Amino acid sequence: MITLYGARDGALVRLAETIPHPDAVWIDLCDPTAEEEDAVERMIGVEVPTRQEMAEIEESSRLYREDGALVVTATMMEGVGEGRPSRTQATFVLSERHLVTVRYGDPLPFRAFEAKWARQPEARPSSDLVFVALIDAIVERAADVLEYVAADLNAVSMHLFVESGPRKAKEAETDLQEILMRLGRRNMMVSILRESLLSLTRLVPFVRQNAEEWLSQEAPARLKQLERDLRSLSAYEGQLSAEIVYLQEATLGLINLAQNRVIKVLSIAAVLFLPPTLVGTIYGMNFAYMPELDWPYAYPVALAAMVVSGVASFYWFKSKGWL
Q1: CA 20 to 30 Å from 179, out of 132, 142, 242, 303?
Q2: Is the pTM of this model over 0.85?
Q3: Where does the chain cross the membrane (predicted)?
């Protein structure tokens, strides 16, 4: 699908979907067909990367110049609101007159960008300012997701170390397993964000250095600010990654403690029954000459020996602090 945007009285408005269009500033290709790609390529004179080319990870395939335009690819996150985060690529073809975006997903910054521009319009919508505003929206979304992850990790920490009272072993183990799955989902989100921030950290200085001859007056300063924001977000992401690892290890440790408590109870129970079992085993042997067999009170004495040995073992364990 092709969506065209142009400048009208300082505002960014949608235009009729006709290629070429003389007023088009931003051309958004969402899951484009081959015919749509060909039409855009004829209009701007630059080859649009295919989906396979966008997925390549080497830097030379993600950041390059072609026929006076800059072609840069960023990794983005989508599906956070639906609870199914995934990565998607977005390519920006930036020239002095046009900005072309190619994407095969629908991340939130693109969906909300038109409304955001209406709230904070630029004095003169141009290709580079639209590009800067789009990257800024992507960075803001990454920051929002990191804040969401941080709040969730704080809730997990409170639940693990402050709010958890005495619970049944089965209930505690189930709760900890759910927390472990929750941390795994947060780790997946942070991993995608790490990849996204890394791609943006490379993309922004590449554009600032290679398009300085035709960038708007305010664009370089805003790109530098985006670089600073990306550095701070990358550092914050590293802190969250370390916290996730710590909470995962702590959760696994608590699961092991819960399981060890069960094993400890079973082990002690087995040891408590060992002396009575020994007594019963001795007097259950089928020897012809066992003097105790002729005693009139042999049976109750054997039972008493079993009980005394079990009770003595119990109090001995208790005196050692093992119970």
Answers
A1: 142
A2: no
A3: 265-285, 297-317
